[in-house]
Each structure stands twice: as C-alpha cells, then as structure tokens.
Amino acid sequence: MAYQQEERGGGFRAWINEGAGKVVTIIVVILLIGVAGWAGYRKWNERGSSKARKVYEAGHTLKYICESCKNSGESNFPYDVAFPAKCPQCNEMAAYPAFACRACRKMIRNTGGALVICPHCQHQHHIEQMPANIPPPPPIR
Ligand SMILES: [Zn+2]
Ligand SMILES: [Zn+2]
Fold first, then answer.
1. With 46 labelled, which of 24, 57, 85, 119 sits at a CA distance of 20 to 30 A?
2. Cα(74) to centroid(ligand 1), Å
3. What is the C-alpha to C-alpha distance for residues 16 and 20, in angstroms, rounded to an integer?
4. If you measure from the C-alpha of residue 43 to the centroid of ligand 2, how many angstroms do you get, rounded to a whole number?
5. Contacts 24+ apart (CB under 8 A), 47-51
C-alpha cells in the first residue's frame, strides 16, 4: 500500500519534469499570477473609493424594538435597511425603529405616524417630539 503511494508520487514528479507536464505547470503558475494580480487590483480599487462610501457602508446605530423577542436596544443597521429588520437578538425579521418614551423612558416602537401612544404609560408623543424615524444617509461623493 505504502509502496504504491510512493510510486504515484514519484510518477507525478517525473511528469512535472516532462515536456507536457512542464507546459501545464507554467500555465497554472501564469493563471495563479493572473488571479493574484486581479485580486490586488480589486483591493487597490476598493481602497481608492471615497470615505463617504465607507461611512455609508458601515451603516448607523439605531434604536430598535423587536416584536418577536421583545428585546430593545441599539444596534448597527445599514442605511438602506427596510423594517421590519433582522433582530440582533433572535434573528427574526421583527425589529422596528424605536425611541424611549418621554414619560416612562421605556423603549417603544416608532410607527412613523403623527401620534405614538406609549403602550406602557399611555403618554402621547406627537411627531415633533419624536426622533426622525430613519436618519438620512450621508451623501456619497
Ligand atoms: Zn428579537
Ligand atoms: Zn411610556
């Protein structure tokens, strides 16, 4: 068994040193250099992209409340996030933008309507008392 493996290994080495084997080896090396160069170019291109783009892609911190696991807090969401978004706690698509109630400080869902009534203390929040539902993304230059 061990002898057979040694034989195959030796045969491969001999094949590489042969004419056809040499050609295949050179082609493989050229392909590898090409792939490495392409990857390097891609990386260089990305590095050249504007700072604004990076800020945009990093997303932003939003207060959220999850209708599934009832967790709330702050998490990073992309600027083009659509709600309900993926909850960072339970991974359900049940996270909604939220804000802290002005009266009881509990997190409540920001429905985006003109009036949000706190389900905990019934305090009424008019639209001018609420934070913007989703802040606008930074401009991309
Ligand atoms: Zn959840
Ligand atoms: Zn409240």
1. 85
2. 12
3. 8
4. 49
5. 50/140, 50/141
HEC letters along 111-133:
CCCCEEECCCCCCEEEHHHCCCC
Work out the angle between the directed axes of helices 2-17 and 19-47 (0-180°, nearest 10). 80
Q: Could you give the C-alpha distances from 25 to 14, 28, 57, in angstroms and in order?
A: 12, 5, 41
pLDDT tier at 101, thresholds 50, 70, 90 = very high
Q: Give me the helices (H) in the chain, please.
A: 2-17, 19-47, 51-58
Evaluated on CA atoms 100, 72, 69, 97, the torsion sign reads positive
Q: Which residue type, as a one-letter code, is found at position 53?
A: R
Q: How far is the CA of 80 from the centre of ligand 2 (A)?
A: 29
| pLDDT tens figures, 77-99 | 998 899 999 999 999 999 999 99
Tell me, in angstroms, the distance from the centre of ligand 2 to residue 117's CA.
8
> Ligand 2 centre from 97 Cα, in Å?
16
Residue 112 φ/ψ, nearest 5 degrees: 85, 0
